[in-house]
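Residues determine shape. We examine one folded chain.
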Amino acid sequence: MVSIRPGQEEALQPGLLLDVTAGLQDLASPGEILVTAATRPLIARAFSTEERTAVRLPGAEEPLAIARVTGTADPRTD
């Protein structure tokens, strides 16, 4: 995540978001997309997902529920 204000140089903002993102990237197989449970409802209209076993990622106090994106959602199911 990059935070930029007018007149300010780019600055990397380390923290939980970057830790989780890097952890999911490390867990994913080539071509696989993993998302957190918090992201799942935000993408539900466009993508179908499959729940996976919760994982413990660096920086997170508790295991995080994750899901695998399995494809695009069927718009006829709305």
